[in-house]
């Protein structure tokens, strides 16, 4: 077994991890295919090779459960698709899959476009915007509207937008500190508890209204209500989708705008394609397959800036990975950004290069376990197509009329929180 260099008695590697999580994790990559580090005295096995990552996520997935990190979300939001283990997970996945089917995407793209348009309409040329925050609001509104499209859900959409921000922040904090912290009546905890109560109440009311109306409104909630799930199960899934689908997409989309702002050549190629394909008309789902360069920009952003920097699993039966035999209960960790920035796998991995996707081998990367931004196997992201469509629609709608430029002197840094995100993204918005 390879133990990471720099272990401190009692603390393990906790300090090095806290000081610079991604630096620490990327440093482990060079030390072996499976490298063990310690949080205090608890060993965590980081898996660095694509073959072994594929085994954990796909071929040997039945030997692993989700692991500790999901426990807090499960406790707060119920055991939904994003946290459940087998056999409950497979049953839920089967019920939820149709809501994310390709046929539904056209309606979702219409929601994405109209939200994005409303959002850019508030911009004034020359203004500086805090883009990462604005995009968070946008993805929240898009997900909420895709869930509750009907008039019956209007109040829920505004409530979700109001409550979910503090809840998302609170979950991260709560996952990192002992449970007793939650019972201290700090203003943050009170806001969190009140937000969660309000959100639960309003989601329950909308579910009731949908059941009574008995109509398919063409949204996610209609699909869930029509399924064999109880009201509590439907509510749990709604909460899970809001949790799993908003920040991840917002952060990746923010990085895409950051990369466009940093490289005029890439930006102008996007402008050219958007003008040629759309000629000024609003984007629809049917246009997406023709926006090939924009698609490569999004793929490259997802590779370089994968927000999920920590994916945990827990062995539930003995399993040997490389030279390590894991006993049940052993914790395994996969860091997607560390994998996607490995110079042994990608040429010049820190360079943002949408054209690397023209490489004929690119289509093999996911199957080989080299590129897994949305996971792989039974837990592969159910919202992948939704997220890609949302990012493409947002980029195109902005780039039709606007050019976003970096603010001189403002340095954008990557910070590891619940997700790997930009510290703050300030941008000047100009009319094209
Ligand atoms: C760029 C955006 C996104 C990224 C990078 C991303 C990434 C991921 C990853 C890595 C997983 C696998 C987790 C695991 O193996 O334990 C996952 C699962 C999941 N994602 Fe996403 N996601 C994104 C957007 C979305 C969206 C938009 C939705 C919903 C609207 C969504 C809903 C889910 C759900 C429900 C799961 C659990 C699936 C299961 O276990 O069966 N995600 N996502």
Automatic annotation (TrEMBL):
Coiled coil stretches, renumbered: none
UniProt entry tagged with the keyword Metal-binding: yes
InterPro entries named in the record: Cyt_P450, Cyt_P450_CS, Cyt_P450_E_grp-I, Cyt_P450_sf, Cytochrome_P450_Monoox
CDD domains named among the record's database cross-references: CYP170A1-like
Keywords on record: Heme, Iron, Metal-binding, Monooxygenase, Oxidoreductase
UniProt keyword Hydrolase, yes or no: no
Domain of life per record: Bacteria
Gene3D superfamilies assigned to the protein according to its UniProt record, in alphabetical order: Cytochrome P450
Family: Belongs to the cytochrome P450 family.
Protein name, entry field: Cytochrome P450
Native organism: Kibdelosporangium philippinense
